Amino acid sequence: MRLLYALVRIPVKLTLEIAGRAVSVVGLRGDGTAQPQYAPPPPPPVPRSNGGAPPVAPEPEAVPAPAATPEPAPEQAPEPVHVSEEPELIVEVADRGAEDGAGAEVHVDEPWEGYDRMTAADIKDRLRTQDKTVAAAVSLYEASRKGRSSVLEAAARRTSARPSG
Fold first, then answer.
1. How do residues 12-25 score in pLDDT, each as one tens digit?
2. Is residue 138 part of a domain?
3. What predicted TM-score, i.e. pTM, was given to this entire model?
4. Fewer C-beta neighbours within 10 Å, C or N terminus of the chain?
């Protein structure tokens, strides 16, 4: 029985201690309302007089305005010496071979002799009788040259077509 009492008493005691610390951190009053942990300092005291009337500031005397004279234009300050108009190259770094260009260059020859002189309709007619490799060459060549959509579509249809047989 004593062991059971100890097993219950320890968690209850710890819970109450934790709750007490939480209350002191939050600063709750006995009625459950929050008590501010930090109060701003009170305002400085107002100086008291000897009971006489408050001092009155003298009214400014009316001074006639001087005759309007045009103000000279403000002079522009000279530009600081450290400001530069042109950027100055500090260092130039490039990978080996960068002077040759961004990458490989692909050159595609005409798919057949006289291709460049043919109209789009003539090319599409000839594609009907060509195999997929020629159609792929037409697609590459046309994309890098004139880029005619009708020719590119015909070549794409031919390269995706199933072999007849």
1. 787 878 777 766 65
2. yes
3. 0.38
4. C
Please tell me the distance from the alpha carbon of residue 146 to that of residue 131, in angstroms, as a whole number. Answer: 22
Specify if 96 maps to a domain: no
- What residue numbers bound the domain in which 115 lies? 107-160
DSSP string across the chain = -HHHHHHHHHHHHHHHHHHHHHHHHHTB-TTS-B--S--PPPPPPPPP-SSSPPP-PPPPPP-PPPPP-PPPPPPPPPPPTT--SS---------TTGGG-SS-------SSTTGGGS-HHHHHHHHTTS-HHHHHHHHHHHHHTT--HHHHHHHHHHHHSPPP-
CB 23 within 8 A of CB 15: no
142-164, pLDDT tens digit by residue? 998 888 999 999 999 988 876 65
Angle at 20 between CA 19 and CA 26, to 5 degrees: 85
- Please report whether residue 76 resides in a domain: no
Residues in the chain: 165
Task: Note whether residue 48 is domain-resident.
Answer: no
